[in-house]
Design a protein that fits this description.
139 residues, alpha+beta, Ribosomal Protein S8, Chain: A, domain 1, three-stranded antiparallel β-sheet, 7 helices, 3 strands
Length: 139
Amino acid sequence: IVRIETEDPYMAMKVKQAIEAISMGYDKLDILQMMDADLVLQTIDVKELVGSGNKLKRTLGRLIGTKGKVKEAIEHLTETKIKINEEEGTVGILGRPENTDIARIALLKIIRGKPQNKVIQELERKRIDIKMRKLGIWM
């Protein structure tokens, strides 16, 4: 048990997330960036959502994709770093809050059975929309 004592609730949250990030397998540089920047860690307990055994293995395999392609595509399109802990059945998403939200929604869609290619296509469209809005171009 780790006890965090601080009067700053934001720092307490950051330290808690740093501990979670360590347990998820993020490296020191990622954790330092999270502490210094406006980065957050979100987690998904896949085991809680789908159960254990073959269904969990199959679901985690769908999140990873062949040779890691699905995970890599989601990371690239959402500008996040995703760690999948197969032993614990959990997924960690590290990035800016708005990006981790988008990645989380995409991962949950795959967990619920939506085809990976459809989710990736949605992310590609969303990324274009976000870039257009940043540039002040409305479609």
